[in-house]
Amino acid sequence: MSNRAQYEPGPAGEARVQKDGDKWTLVLVRELRHSPEKVWQALTEPAHLREWAPFDADGNLAAVGSRVKLTTAGAPAPHVSETTIARADAPRLLEYRWGGFDMKWELEAVGGGTRLTLWTNIGHRFIAMGAAGWHICFDVLDRLLAGEAIGRIAGPDAKSHGWQRLRAEYARQFGMEDSC
For residue 37, how many other CB atoms are within 10 A of its CB? Predict the structure, then answer.
C-alpha cells in the first residue's frame, strides 16, 4: 500500500450542477489512465468497491435487475440501502440508486484511458460536500487502478485528507455559499 499519509488531493476538478425543478444533480468528470473495462470492474465488483467507494456492496453491480445492499462506509452508524441495478451496459453505462439518490456512471474511452462521468442527484446544501467526497474517492480509485492502493478515504476520515479545502473550492466553483 502506498503512503496514505502523504496523499493530498489536487484542486477542484471538472464538475457542474444541474437543476431541474426541485431536483439538483451533481455532475463530476474525471479522466482516468485506465481502460473502460478496468474502470468498469472497479465500479461494479464488491472487492474493488471496498478499496475506494464510499459504500460497500454485498453483490456485483454489473447485472440489470440484481438486488444489492449498499452500506455507507465511515458512517457513525451503519446506513444500509437496497438497490436494484436499473442499467448495466458494460463497460459504458451503470445506473442504480444509493440511499434514495440516482447514480448514473458513464465510461467513455479517450486516448489510452477513460473519461468517467458521474451524475447523482443530491440535496442542494450537500452539493459541495458531495463533490469534495467524490473527488477524493476518484483519486483513491485512480491510484488503486494504477497498483498504488492507499485504501479508502471516506466519511470522517476524508476530513484529515483535504476534504474541507476541496469543499470550499467546489462551493466557489458552483457559486454557492460555503456555510459548513
Answer: 12
